[in-house]
Amino acid sequence: MLMDKVTRFFWFCSGAHVDILKKYPVEHNKYVGIGATIFFTALFAALSGGYAMYFVFNGDAFAVGFAILFGLLWGTAIFNMDRYIVSSINKDGSTNKQILQATPRILLAIMIGIVISRPLELKIFDKEIRQKLKTSYLKGQNRKIDTLQKTYTQKYAMELSKGAELRKEKDSLEKDINRSRFQLNQEVFGDKTNQTSGITGYGTYAKQKESVLKEKQDRLKTVTEDVGKMDQYLSQRKDFEGLNNLRLFTDKQLDSLANVAGFADRNWALGQLTYNENGTRDLDTYLAISFIGYLFILFECLPVLVKLMSPKGPYDVAMAKMSEADIHYAERDKERDMAITDNVFDHHLDADVGNRKKALTNQSEANMERYRYR
Q1: How far are the Cα atoms of 145, 168, 360, 363, 367 from residue 374, in angstroms, in the given order?
Q2: CA angle at residue 174 from 172 to 177, to 5 degrees?
């Protein structure tokens, strides 16, 4: 009982005329297979469309509801289209005529297969797509930081150059002060060198060296203050340009961005999976993605191909005869309507002629009576 219901359901899916098909048991299995293929193609289309719509409304409270509704609508549309494509193929003509008749339907089936397969490919390669998106977002953030840094360097080149000169002078002064302080100690303690007199005590030479050291320390203090002011100014400029607030994404932020990525971003990432970092084709990934698409295209074209490859059976002959009978009935019905219309028109014409004759006769008699009494 259950199998009978399943069989009748798949017959309905195949677009066959159930009452005629029942008369030819040899055709039952063929149309069960065609109907099952159409049904499961529509089922995959519903899952694919629902998954795609889920990512369109990802984050929305009604995302699941929208996905289910669109999946049902999309699956129903594909089901009706496939059912029409298969049921409209006429097995009455020659092989070339059937192929020519089926060509636009096969092209349409290929387009449907491509549309169905893409969202499912996105789900199958979800992990790889997430990793590709993270890498892309990280590279994009790096490029943004590099662009801002380059713009900042060009815009404040004079200030940066002056700051570098001040830091260079500060480093030079610090080294010079250390050297001068060492020479002052040698002068005070009477160490004889080519830079000291060798006289112990705080004499004239020591006072001169101390004076020079103090001048250098005063200059270092001024330069240090100038460096601090320049660094503070440049830091304010970085804040103004947004450079200080820009940081590389953390792993948590990258996961969050990958989770909310839209359908277009994920579709782009899927395409990029077929290329290596150096721009060459990643053949393994390319073939894996392509064969999934080819599988759904073949699956979508299968009902049409089965109908084309199957020999002309008794069901096809019966449908052709029924079609001829219906056409003949319609033609005869047309002829009957035309004959009825002609007879009705002739009847009305005869009646109108009779009424006209009667009117003219009455008028003639009236005229004769009027002239008789004159």
Answers
A1: 124, 147, 22, 17, 11
A2: 105
* 42 strand-pairing partners: none
**Single-letter amino acid, residue 284:** D
Percent of the chain predicted with pLDDT > 90: 1
Counting other chains too, the contacts that 25-31 makes at CB distance below 8 Å and 24 or more residues apart are 26/313, 26/314, 27/313, 27/314, 27/315, 30/306, 30/310, 30/313, 31/315
Convert the pLDDT of each residue in 249-302 to its tens digit. Answer: 778 888 887 877 777 888 888 888 888 878 788 888 888 888 888 887 887 787
Which residues have C-beta within 8 Å of that of residue 296, sequence separation ≥ 6? 44, 113, 114, 116, 117, 120
CA distance 208 to 273: 75
- Cβ burial of 270 (10 Å; 0-12, 13-18, 19+) is buried
**What is the DSSP-derived secondary structure letter of residue 275?**
B
Q: What is the DSSP letter of 201?
A: S
The pTM score is: 0.57
CA distance 217 to 211: 10
Interior angle at CA 44, CA 282 and CA 291, nearest 5? 25
Residue 72 dihedral angles phi and psi, to the nearest 5°: -65, -45
Secondary structure element (H or E) that encloses residue 235, with its range: helix 204-241
pLDDT in tens, 162-217: 888 888 888 888 888 888 777 767 766 666 666 666 666 666 766 777 787 788 88
Q: Are 125 and 272 in contact (CB under 8 A)?
A: no
CB within 8 Å of 308: residues ≥ 6 apart? 89, 98, 99, 102
Q: Are 330 and 36 in contact (CB under 8 A)?
A: no
